Every structure is written in structure tokens, then in C-alpha cells.
Amino acid sequence: MDFKKQPVIIKAIELAKRLNIKIFLVGGPLRDLFLKKRVLDFDLAIDGDLKKFGSLLAERLKGRFIYHPQFLTGKVIYNSNYIDIAHLRDEIYEQPGALPKVIPIKDIVVDLKRRDFTINAFAYDLLEDKIIDPFSGIDDLKNRIIRILHERSFIDDPTRIFRAIRFAKRFNFKIERKTLILLKRAIKESYLTTISYQRIFHELNLILKEKKFDKMFFSLSQLGIFKKIFNKSLSYWNIQKLKKLKNFKIPIEIVFIYLLYLLNFRKPEILKKEERKVIEELDYFKKIKRRLLKVKRRSEIYQLFSSFSFSTLKIIYVLESPLRKRIKIYEKIKEIRPLINGKELKKMLERKIIKNLKEKDFSKILLHLKLKRIEGKLKNKEEEIKEVIRWTQGH
Ligand code: CTP
Fold first, then answer.
1. Which of 6, 145, 276, 363: disulfide with 271, CB 3.0–4.6 Å?
2. The pLDDT value given to residue 210
3. Predicted confidence band at 394 (pLDDT cuts at 50, 70, 90)?
4. What is the reported pTM?
5. Nearest C-alpha to atom 19 of ligand 1 is from which residue?
6. DSSP letters of 161-182?
């Protein structure tokens, strides 16, 4: 097979022979090779000293090795590619939804057996030059079928519910009948609520990155997955909004925040600072939208739109086309600054040109000057000084 000519694979095989350990190509990249897709990053499984193997391979590839002993995994990063390496392992699920305990093992078949779907559960023995396919994964690939390996699969690891939909839509495969029954049962019996939000968010982000993410979300919604987790489903129209944001090349992290907003997710303790902020701003936007649509005066445009951060404004810009003109005006006028700054106000105070101005009011007067300038009412510094004097007399 072609991948055997790849320099990284040649080097990995040489090293495995020298260390006298078994080495297998596994997981998604192997599946993708069988689907005739271009693969640059490989997944390897070995049955020897992972730290030693990973470090030596990294050395030979002039890269670096990141080792996670607690998961029995590691990553060699070289140029801009990477190779994931894992020790052959079994996983024990002590509680549904919790991360499994991993145990190093020697048998590739046991390692394959703990995996999610048959299409991800075959291996290529790189030393013996043969395929190991105990669950007929290659047949399922040919027949375009997503099939779990055992009845408890979705219960042990409910993130596989997301994965099943993701792979089915990505490859245009069908979820096998019994697998679908078990998937639906796991949803109905609320196993999704056993996984942490962190893991759910990870899965949602993986989906957002996919080309056909809209189809995937539609499917998740139809299966009642969002309703179970967020107590809210995602309508077709809302999915179209997410699509619009993505088509506009809005960064995935921001599209994800918008997804949380749509799903009514408001748990501050789970959200990151930026997420919390954008969601709050979007809630505020909803309240003042009608005012924004009517506002004409440039100073008011500035005041209203300055409540939103850059990310929120981007979302509004894409989704609310009647507001685009005003946002463009805002982007321009927000750069307008008064000619007088804080330092000069201080000097004016020292020289007693003005009285009654406390430092805490500096920002107020500077904003006042800015708004006047935005309105085109202050032409030069003299006029600004006069305005400052007037303002302090009036307060
Ligand atoms: N795996 C699993 N159960 C999970 C996650 C992963 O059994 N919940 C196994 C699968 O065998 C999978 C491999 O671990 O192929 C690697 O996981 P990951 O990199 O997430 O999956 P890929 O199949 O490589 O997916 P993608 O094509 O999206 O990168």
C-alpha cells in the first residue's frame, strides 16, 4: 500500500524493529486511507515503551514528542504534521459517561474491541504487513455502514452518539439498524446527561468544524439530542444562521458561542469569560434591536453600538443585514478622538483654566467631546477647550 512508502512510516517501522516491538496503523487515518482520502497525520499503536519510542521517533523526524502517561498516549509533532501514538490498551468504563480507566495490554484485538465503530476498529500490522479486521470494518466501509461493536457502546461513552452522526453525515453512510435503535435508546434514557459539558462542547466543536455540520446539527436536533441536553432544540432556521456565520469565515469559537446562545445556555460557571460576555451582549442586542434599526444620529449610533465587543458586532453584522450600514458607520466613527486628552485636562486644572473637574469625570468629559466631534460640532482645539469650560461650569 502507498502509505508504506511514506518516510515517517518507514522510520517508524525501522525503529519498531530495532526496539523489537509491534506496531500498527489504526483509527481514523487508516479508515481514511481505505476511503482513498489524502492522509498526512497517522495514528499508531505499539506494544512497547511509548516514551522511548515516541522520543526516538521525534528525534529522527527532527520534531518533538508530547507524552501523556496517564492516557498511555503521545504525539510526535514535526514540520506541521503530527503522529499520534498510543500504547495498545483496554478501557474500563466504571461509570457511564465518565472518562475510562486505561490499562496497557499486548493484544491488538482487545485494543480494537474497545473502539467506537467497526469502521474505526481495524488495524494494519506494519511489521507483518497484514490487515487485522476482527469486526469486518472493511466490509462496513465498503457497504457504507456505521455499526457499534457491542450493546453497551453508547452507554459507556455517550459521546459516540455525536460521533455516529458525525461520521454518518461526513461520509454519507447509514447507521445500521440495531446501532440506531441503541443510539435512540441511549438518548431516551438520558445517558447524554452523564457526560460533562466540557466533553459535549468538544463534540459540538468537532461538528462545527465539519463541512456538512448543518446536516449533522439537523440530525442531532431531530433525534432530540439538543432537547435532552439543553432543553431546547435547534430549528432549521437557526442552523441556517450558523451556516451563514461560517460562510462568512467567522472564527469557529465565535460561531460556537452563537450556538450556545441559540441553545439558551446560560450557565456562567461553565462558560469562559469571552463566551459569557458575548452571550450577555447578544441578549442585550435582542432587547435594543428595534432602537438600533431606527437610530440615525451618528453620536447615538456610536453610543448604542459601543456596548458590543468585536465578536458580537461581527455576529450582528452577518446576521442582521439591515444593520450593516450603521455598523460600518460605527466602525468609522469609533476611531474619532477628541484633540484634548486626559493629560491636557490635568494641565487645564493646574492652570486653573477649569475648576470643579474630578479625575473620575475625565472619561465623561472626553466621551462628551468625542460625541460632539462625531456630530461634527467641534472643529479645532480652541472649540474643544471652550466646550470643556462650558461643561465644567454646567456640572
Ligand atoms: N475512539 C473511540 N471512541 C471515542 C473516540 C475515539 O473508540 N469516543 C477511537 C476510534 O477508534 C477512533 C480513534 O479512537 O478512530 C481515534 O479517535 P479520533 O481521533 O477522535 O477519531 P478519528 O476516527 O480519527 O476521527 P476524525 O476523522 O474525525 O479525526
1. 276
2. 98
3. confident
4. 0.93
5. 28
6. HHHHHHHHHHHTPEEPHHHHHH
The string of pLDDT tens digits covering residues 251-301 is 999 999 999 999 999 999 999 999 999 999 999 999 999 999 999 999 999
* Any ligand 1 atom below 6 A from CB of 169: no
Asked whether 71 and 80 are in contact (CB, 8 A), the reply is no
Q: Radius of gyration of the chain from Cα atoms? A: 29
User: What is the grid cell recorded at 248?
Assistant: 462568512
The closest-lying atom of ligand 1 relative to the alpha carbon of residue 160 is: 8
Q: Is 120 in the pocket of ligand 1 (CB under 6 A)?
A: yes
State yes or no: pLDDT of 46 exceeds 80.
yes
For residue 218, CA distances in Å to 54, 190, 225, 372 come to 41, 19, 10, 49
Say which residues have a Cβ less than 8 Å from residue 347's Cβ, sequence separation at least 6.
none
Q: Is 75 in the pocket of ligand 1 (CB under 6 A)?
A: no
* Domains, in order of start, for the chain: 1-141 (3.30.460.10), 289-333 (no CATH), 342-393 (no CATH)
Does residue 379 have a pLDDT over 70?
yes
